[in-house]
Amino acid sequence: MKLLRKGKVKDIYEIDDGKILFRFSDRVSAFDVRMNEAVPRKGEVLCRFAEYWFNVLGTNHHMLSVVGKDRMIVKKLNMIPLECIVRGYFYGSLVERYNKGIGVELFSSDLPPVLATKLNHPMFDPSTKSETNDVYINNKQIITSGLVSKQDFDYLKTKSISLYRSMSTQVERAGFLLADVKFEFGKEPKTGNILLGDSLGPDEYRLWPKKGYSPGKIQESYDKQLLRDWLIKIGFKDRIDQSKKEGRNPDPPKLDAALLTKLSNRYIQSYELITRKKIDE
Which of 64, 112, 116, 278 minimizes the number of CB atoms within 10 Å of its CB? Predict the structure, then answer.
């Protein structure tokens, strides 16, 4: 077994017969900076969530089997170099870009949107794919740069929005709202067919409880947004922005045990409410 990459969230190994092993870790990152502390049971929840979504979304995917609590065997794909992000609400980096005048043309109203308001339609908002810093890229640039063909782009956009709608319906039954989600896709080497790849879990989406949802404010979150909000509160996000201008990432702050426990509990609770299964089953 050969280690191919130690990523932000999981370790990726090449095994045999064109197969890959994912080992989901308890590591956590935010704003493309990896924290030094781990979130208890996070890897287990991410693995179980990925298994659940691959099984219920009804689309072709690369999962083959799950081994133990935190490992998954998948088909090896030629990954498409895009983060296929779909946004249902005005939140996160979309707000930051809008305030800088980037992508304003995507909004039809002359009035600035209110924080956390639901968009009229789910927005396909892709970025480049990187282990360090993902970068926003508009739809026209994706095609003209040759990252994907127009045919593949149209498929990725349509499929991503369809999957977002399906996930939204399911999480709403469990009392949540799906603010946004990131999908990754790859092509089978032999057939060229596009499959849903990577993983799907709280590190790939923002999940808000419906109870208490109110536009115009920061939303309670059952994903790693809790960590992002804390980093913003202590001023670490400002340090990241300054450091990126200098071409580096700052050293992460120390995360206290209470925050790590709260993160862990919310990962577990969201899994159990959405899947209707206990994590220890």
Answer: 278
